[in-house]
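Cross-posted from the bioinformatics board.
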Amino acid sequence: MASGLDSFVNHTVSIITSDGRNFIGTLKGFDQTINIILDESHERVYSTTSGVGQVMLGLHIIRGDNVAIIGLIDEEIDNRLNLSSIKAEPLNPVVH
Amino acid sequence: MLPLSLLRTAQNHPMLVELKNGETYNGHLVSCDNWMNINLREVICTSREGDKFWRMPECYIRGSTIKYLRIPDEVIDMVKEETMIKNKQSRDQKGGRGGQNQRNRPAARGNFGGRGNKPGGPQKLFQKQKPK
């Protein structure tokens, strides 16, 4: 069965987890439970008082249970962002 | 590449495991299974707030409680080697899937037809009923 995620493999993706965090990295693989391999990843930390912080993390396996959204990133647009000037409220965790 | 193949390749490597409850476990991966249940050795557990620490020689973590695992960067390059070796091995095997090795199997299965002829089998029961 073809999954919609096939076309995302080896591309930069943004993953929002159910605890409200945002991970960016290269999607290296996934399985039927949406466990995810994210390579060269970093976390973007949002705050209303200062710009977006980036935390380098490296290689990750994210368990499918915690994945809320996977989005393809247009690197050209992403590179044009001035993260230090962006202020935003952090996301809340998903309420079950 | 499958996440669980990467995890298997990470055996004997250090890793950080964050649980859904926010606790983190740092240790060396001893083993894992298809449900992502994992065995760690030389573990340091950190509380959700990051203010309390526990050391333990080993621990077992149920896969379903895991949020994510952080793995050393170099492990991803080792998976590629492992899958390539596996593919080569299966290609080198004689016959392979549906090959000559399986030719004799249907005859062997036919042996099950012998059931019922043994002494003490259904026939004996039949004989017992005869004198009535």
